[in-house]
């Protein structure tokens, strides 16, 4: 208890290098004790073979091994409610300060406020840093103040702000010899928390020069490896975000960079409008009379709608924990507009299944296809699954991979006719708009 330490609290930044909060903790005279908390507030809602929990666990073990073998240190891992865990840590260690990187989701703000209050009661400093974005909160605003509500002007202003700033690398790995000298810190297994290893693996990302050069031509074709598979790694911070932005810039790939800026745009929107996690950004669309047919929702979830490209996407999601971004738009539009099922149902299902689930992007994407959100597709834009197939999977390679019975008598008939569904959708949305 006599030795004073600083805590570095890992959250969605599971790496030892170019980690802002870790870098600042390691600069202090007192040793840094790395900590990760498996948060029961979050984990209690998840299936026991959740692939994201397995991935987080494996990444922490990799870091623990590196710290043990090279620096005589480790990571203390805990399972519980963060406020209770920190009370326990304060009892066990002489803590001077807690360092961490900021998270921008509504739950994270509430959690961090509780921890900060607890620490203040015990005379312990709390320091948080910007790590997972280039610009946060109010850093990209209109000239007269206020948040951009349309992506394109936000993107242009983002780039103007970026030109005024330089990206600073944080060589946290060079200072790991200042981590707490103990290789036998508290550690948990998956089974200790009631979890088991998942059969679904998070694939490695790829950003080769040739891939970035061809990204604009390949990113919309779901049958090829035309996307980076970077999103889970950004979600959990196993790769430094600044490194990725610099790669996009060095490749002079504006399309790829713009996708990264979309991510920051949605984070800023959720920060300014946290109510959009459960309400339409445009309140008028809360008047939509959703059909919310549970049997139809089940067909959508299981990929048995009779629309091959929709079914291929849902089966890809269920089997691999991932879905091609173009197909996410198609299946989302189908749920909301063909079936008139509330976008929140789809958002919740994606939250359960996606390896790269990120609340801000997921809500933003779902409200976009539903026509209810910020800078959304107009309500009268209804994706036609057949024309989307002709445009992006003309040879049916993607469909045949995920729907092997396609073209046989075993494949179901379409659950609703496209033209009828479109007309029903337009009538329903128009009725909601007229109530204004």
Brief descriptors of the model:
3 domains, DNA Cyclobutane Dipyrimidine Photolyase, subunit A, domain 3, 436 residues, Rossmann fold, Serine Threonine Protein Phosphatase 5, Tetratricopeptide repeat, five-stranded parallel beta sheet, alpha/beta, 18 helices, 8% strand
Write down the CATH class of the largest domain.
Mainly Alpha
Integer-rounded radius of gyration: 23 Å
Helix fraction? 40-55%
Q: CATH fold name of the largest domain, please?
A: DNA Cyclobutane Dipyrimidine Photolyase, subunit A, domain 3
Derived from helix and strand composition plus strand pairing, the structural class reads: alpha/beta
Can you summarize the main beta sheet? 5 strands, parallel
- Please, how many helices? 18
**Overall average residue pLDDT:** 95
Per DSSP, what share of the residues sits in E-state strands of 2 or more residues?
A: 5-15%
Q: State the separation between the terminal residues, measured CA to CA.
A: 63 Å
**Coarse morphology:** globular
Relevant CATH superfamily of the largest domain = DNA Cyclobutane Dipyrimidine Photolyase, subunit A, domain 3
- The poorly predicted ranges are none
Q: What is the number of independent domains? A: 3
In the sheet with the most strands, the strands line up as: 3-2-1-4-5
Number of strands: 5
